[in-house]
Amino acid sequence: MNNKMIYKKRFLIAALALVTNFTVHAKELVGKVAISADTQQADLKRNIVIFKNNVDIYHNDKNIKADLLEVHRRTELGKEKQLLIATGNPATFSGKLKDGKPVTASAKNIRYDVAAGTLTFNGNAKINQSGQSMSAKTIVYDHKQELITANKDKGSDQRVHTILTPVKKDKRPVKKEEKDNTGNN
């Protein structure tokens, strides 16, 4: 075997070990992070794995679709040491609130801090939750606290826009027993 072939095998083994370490570490602490894409590249010096084209990220009840994903793993990122940065035109997010209701969002850039449970949508950010929608330059969604914060771009006149949709009340049929109790026979 020549040196080039040995280098390629070592690189492949190191890249697989790095990705396996991401998945195992995430599984132990907060659930498995599964990523699929057309292309994967590991930058071993900077401890970054890059996924390109048709990127799908699944983590518990959350899904992100993007054109490009960078997975950073470094000790300065804190306990979980993982930061996922997805880029797309747009990159999209879907998930569920604690009550099971869906939430969807899109932006040019989605930054997912696994340890903090926060998603930062930047660049033409939009989020929809229970029929309500919001758009802004930047939206931060704290999944753990179910808190959404939106900000306009500094130096811009474009403000945060929200559309509130009235919630329909359930019209349940009145039971015979309830009619009898009100005196309406």
Automatic annotation (TrEMBL):
First and last residue of the signal peptide: 1-26
Stretch list, region Disordered: 166-185
A molecular-function term among this protein's GO annotations: glycolipid transfer activity
UniProt GO cellular component terms: cell outer membrane; outer membrane-bounded periplasmic space
Keyword list, A-Z: Periplasm, Signal, Transport
Basic and acidic residues bias: start-end ranges: 175-185
InterPro entries documented for this protein: LPS_export_LptA, LptA, OstA-like_N
GO biological process, one term: lipopolysaccharide transport
Superkingdom of the source species: Bacteria
Domain Organic solvent tolerance-like N-terminal intervals: 35-146
NCBIfam families from the UniProt entry: outer_YhbN_LptA
Protein name in the entry: Lipopolysaccharide export system protein LptA
Originating species: Pseudoalteromonas denitrificans DSM 6059
